[in-house]
Structure prediction request, 1169 residues.
Amino acid sequence: MFGYILKRLLATIPVLLIVAVFVFLLLRLTPGDPAAILAGDAATPAQLERIRDRLGLNDPLLVQFVTWFGQMLKGDLGTSLISNTDVVDMVSDRLGPTINIALMTIVISVLLAVPMGVIAAWRHRTWIDFAVMSFSVLGFSVPVFVIGYILIQIFAIELRWVPVQGYASPSDGIGAFFSRAILPSLTLATIYVALIARMTRASMLEVLGEDYIRTARAKGVRENVVLFRHALRNAAVPILTIIGTGFALLISGVVVTESVFNIPGIGRLTVDAILARDYPVIQAMILLTAGIYVLVNLIVDVSYSFFDPRIRY
Amino acid sequence: MTEMPSSRRSAFQVLTGVFSLPAGARLGAGPTIAALVLALIVLASICAPLYVPYDPLAMDAMSRLRPPSDEFLLGTDPYGRDIFSRVMTGGRVSLLIGIGAAIVSVAVGLVIGLLAGFFRAADGIIMRIMDSLMAIPAILLAIALVALNGPSLSSVIIAITIPEVPRVVRLVRSVVLSAREEPYVEAAIALGSSMPKILIQHLMPNTLAPLIVQGTYICASAILIEAILSFLGAGVSTEIPTWGNIMAEGRSYFQIKPGLIFWPGLLLSLCILCINLLGDTARDLLDPRMKKREG
Amino acid sequence: MKFKTRDLSTAQRVLKIRKLKVGLTGRPDAQPVLNEIDLDIRAGETHCLVGESGSGKSVTSLATMGLLPKDALEVQGGLIDLEGFEITNATAAQMRDLRAQRVAMIFQEPMTALNPVLRVGEQIEEVLNMHTDLSKSEAKARTIDIMEQVHLPDVQRVYSAFPHQLSGGQRQRIMIAMALVLDPDLLIADEPTTALDVTTQLQILKLIEEMQERHGTAVLFITHDMGVVAEIADTVSVMQKGEIVESAPIRELLTNPQKDYTRKLLKAVPNLAPRPARAVSEKDAVLNVDRLEMTYGGGGWFRKSEGVRAARDVTFDIAPGRTLGIVGESGSGKSTVARCIMRLIDPTGGEVTVAATEISRLSRRNLQSHRKHLQIVFQDPYRSLNPRWTVARSLCEGPINFGTPKSEAMERAAELMELVDLPKDALDRYPHQFSGGQRQRIAIARAVAMKPDLLVADEAVSALDVSVQAQVLDLLDDVQDRFGIAMLFITHDLRVAAQICDDVLVMQKGQVVEQGPAAAVLANPRHDYTRSLIEAAPGRHWDFANFRALERAPAVEGPIA
Prediction:
């Protein structure tokens, strides 16, 4: 088991390496002068030179890569083209709100989606199934910011239950945190719930057709035990997988949601960086999110064996 | 392809065979309505220049933020442009991006997936690269591309395509890997068929049905991502009206003019909903496992 | 042959089914799946339900358990009376109560019938937790006890094992333990030995009988195998298309069947008496296999690992017009040998000479031109034809690969349709429009279209119903006769081997343990393993087709290992 985790950790290195190369090439292989693009139309030659210098664009490609990669390994992702502050500092300052909202989203999503999917599969082709599937298709179809604005309109503007926008950290008081975090979390959760509920239902439908479910029923086992003890554990692996791969959606959602709700997290940081063409920040965000994505999926992989004894390392 | 007996008809029958309904299955009202609504939206978008009352780009300082009226069906935006004309025209680019991204992703993914599924040597490397591309969130990649290349249609399509390709590759590869274990493929080997022939004639048709399904999902998600990119200010040029652009401009006016988000949002959601529903229907009909369970 | 002859007329009736009708849910006017069947089982009786696939055997058992898939099938009339309790209108809670306590069931696939993520001990214990108030330790003691009763080895270890860590036979023992732990009055066994090797099958049949005697359980045993029926049944009901066509005590049914269908069914059952061998050919052997070896795995970058030796030191040859059978249980390496000869896998040692060319080490490219000399027919008729291709296209694929013009290939395909007894218009149809037996005929036609010197039949009749099996065996025989093809016939079923093979080669764990003329090997087996295989063949003393005992039952001399 431990050896397996180590092996998997090692296996993520090439993946992250390819991501790094990709991110590196993205800027350098852009047609035209990247410095000119980043500086905007009104840039003076001095400004251009400064950007080239900062990004090391004057060196040969290989030298650039080695320098860039070496710095990255040391945890140096450069400084912002706009504020001149260290990118790693900028990101870590903004990480807190994003992590809190993301965790809350995951908890809400799993708690809602898994029972929804299980019940939809159990009551296959009834109105409950239809309702769950409708919600799930709808969740895929409405852009996340539209959901955000609708929730704001209803709960903040019409009902006035929660503030419209903003963020408070849990240290400012749990009530303040929840009242501001609940709408963004629900907004983010919509698509995640849709995804997980759908997969839970599909996986459960498959498992409920298996022989051992018939065996359990032939033993006179109660339906709730059939569903949760016999079926759900067998259905778990695809559900875990989708939670892992769906994480990419969550990351994208964070960027949008933080803009809608004006939350000072890394999503806002990214949007501000786009508007200012602050490439070092964008680059750091891609590396960070790819790293998180790989890590989450590593955890998911390792957790398979917890649910399915046939998977042994 | 080698000329086979009745090859013309058999190509047709491959398709009808793929699409034929399992015995006793009926299409419910849902998919039919979805298809009709989608057709209507597509038609309305394509024909928009023929019937919209105003130039979607024409600004008019005299008629800013007008409420809906006979003159302006859905009112006007902060620049005095007719919202109805903009929303109806906006679908054209959104749909183009959706279809474009779907076709490019499926085509590229199919080729790479077939290679990975068939050539053991290439498999490991290809799949590592695919894993890496999947780790990069589409939105962030798009943001980076647009930041570097400037807002353009091709930037957006490429940005949406790159993270989708690995999913298509995985799908094609898994279909190929399981199909090549089938006895009929082994029989073809025994009959002396060459590897390229087996790959194209026996294995590739198996990928058709899942690719159609996957293609619809990619199309839906591409339209959605375009909207999000525009909303974040990283989409196609703001000169071009797209559903995403119209909503992005509506952000600051959300409280006084919700229609700027509501109408394009509604059309966009409806459009994606229909595509997703059709994708689900196609999957239920095409997935043999589903057929076995429900047929 | 010893049949059961117990008189059960005084025993208490456990199950009474009257005019039971089961049909498609919500479609009472459609053709019913079960059409007014009657069935009685008394305490201690073993009642066998036999029939071909689709005859309604399993539906009968599921209806009795109240386990019909609700959205597909429903009871539309009649009654199922379990010791005075009417099952057809019981509530879900009543039914749950009944299961495991009064009626229990074991299924065909012990692998899929056990929950893969729960320990097998827990799965047995769950029955006790659901139906009794036993304490945790009492329940465990009772579980251990029943596991010992079904003769599981090392019970403490097996208790906390997961299903995938046990063998097929052990898993089926777990299923039996689970079914019998609450001592039900009726045990329904749905093809419980079909997925097992013959020697394991024998053990499981003995176990069911032992448990039945110990607990006085009535057994409803569903099977397609007449041999098994002959071994275990008190009473037999023959099913066809949802109806019970004949029901009688075992001896009566086998010696004096009343209905045509029963006679037809029995006539198709192969027996262990070997066929007369075909004429010995003067010509040189078509296939020479010399010290063939196949080792899977092994190698490794850092350490040389052992690898699995799936076949070793296999040597034989086949002359034109003769049939050699390779017989063995699962994992014996018989299919590995076939696949090596076909070069679907690359053997790791030895030589394979087909039509005077050594092919075991030819490169893929050089091999291509030799493919036409050897063809193969696979086991699963549902997967061996490309579902998207017309029959014509499948039949022409090979000849066109070897340069035959399309029109000529088509003509030949039409001739072949006639040969395998299918209508000509079958050429334009797709595989799903044919039955399993018909598809297997098409697969044979596809192989024969290449005019091969050697035909490999890898379990080619194992997936077929017995009457279809007999027809396909006849067809193979006919094809061989007509074209003088040499045939390599891979099978797990000694009875089938006896029907078609001139020579037999018995494999165990990758090695050949015995080979020789079929008559000699089957009548006077020299190796213990061959003997145990013959001993385990169900119904081996009975000549079903002639409704009498075998005149010269394959004698097994000496002690059985």
